[in-house]
């Protein structure tokens, strides 16, 4: 229950339910310390390794590799294709494999291919590395949400997911600062350009975080990591989830699961919901950095420093949206609230011929689009709590299909040669935000009627 639905004022919000026993609260604290910090760290390094392409591009990669056209958006598409293809086997594997082995193993693998990007000598070589980074990063996001849904009740996921999700904004911010530092201090050291040093530094951060996960991540209640969890902890977890209506027994994805999902209209609505979310986003296309570069006013290091403003603000947007969803507004209204601001920024960028200060304001709002991600996936987790198999399959599939759509929609709407204005891209994002809000309230009304 959210704060309003529980009959509390906003200043009476609490971290636990009033009905949680002292032992349950002790367990919640323990599982918070095992999941949330690692989720944050690993998502932070994931987005350092994903976002660093845009930073490298404006810091000399374009000139060093002889890029002349749409290479940036094409490299982003190779990453997306890898991320889509890489998710497909995990629609089945999440319920079969221990998650405390899966997530850290993928983390280490994408760290290795992040490192290899420092030696790239051509577009084709870099495209192959970006595809493999995408492939190994693919299952991370739905996998972490599968873990959240395995340990937390529906009213607990959003704010934990919010702390986890600020790793996206902080990772993008950090990538910019790492590139700024590399351009300023390491340019030409040992014969390597600053953007090549950035990939080395990113890998040195990523791989140790993956190793840490083997010890920290608790897995799931049916396949737990007992390095820190006791049998009593697992029993408490099972009891409290069972009392909240969760199906906690092991349930693997089978062909019967696929048939049941495919025949459910609810599933198709969730796909549309996630499609509108992914296609409303503008933060990943590097529009802010490309605009700063087009001003011909700043050095490479300064461009990356200034480009960190938007993801820094994204940390605030994410925490505000996720805590408001769990404790005050509920998912649909939290999504409406934050995407109203996102649409405002995109309307300004669609008009374009506005004072420069208005463009700074508009780009500062770009991370509003992703701030509600943990609200969306937490809400899906809650709606599917009765079946671990369906939850695993649907979480991966909606993420896969929606991300796959951006492989071609972004090529059409955000071609690099139209940067930084993107006359088709920003109106397209506005349309998807409107559809996202309508779908959210349609789901809200249906769930209210169902309850």
TrEMBL record:
It is a multi-pass membrane protein. GO terms for molecular function: transmembrane transporter activity. InterPro entries: MFS, MFS_trans_sf. The chain crosses the membrane at residues 77-95, 101-119, 131-151, 163-182, 194-217, 265-292, 313-340, 360-380, 392-413, 425-447. Keywords: Membrane, Transmembrane, Transmembrane helix, Transport. It is found in: Membrane. GO terms for cellular component: membrane. It comes from the Eukaryota. Belongs to the major facilitator superfamily. Allantoate permease family. This is Major facilitator superfamily domain-containing protein.
